[in-house]
Amino acid sequence: MPNDIEPIITNDFYIYIYLLVSLVVAILITLLVLFFRYRKSKKVACKNLYKSLDFSNPTKELLYQFTVIAKEQNSSPKLEALLKELEPYKYSQNAKVVDEEIMAKIKEFIGKDEGRRVKGLG
Description:
The protein has helices at about 15-50, 60-75, 75-90, 100-120. By secondary structure, it is mainly alpha-helical. The chain has a domain at about 40-120. The protein is rod-shaped and about 110 Å long.
């Protein structure tokens, strides 16, 4: 009398594939979370740096600080044009009074740069 009940053949290979795929997905999710936290902290740091500038007394020091912060945060043709306009004020022997027009351009650039970063487009 032959045994008509055959053993169930299990293939344990699929569980390893499932574990591998799950591990890859978990790593990707973790990396995405870390990336977005890093971007958020960078946005806050950028905003705080711009807020630290003292526009009440436009001096060479303010222009130097703005140049350093802007170059670290952004690189664009508009920034390069603005920095070219600032050169006569930064590198002159006599301390020139910074024009209101130049200060307005700096404030406009900071507003656009912060807005771009806050909206997540940058």
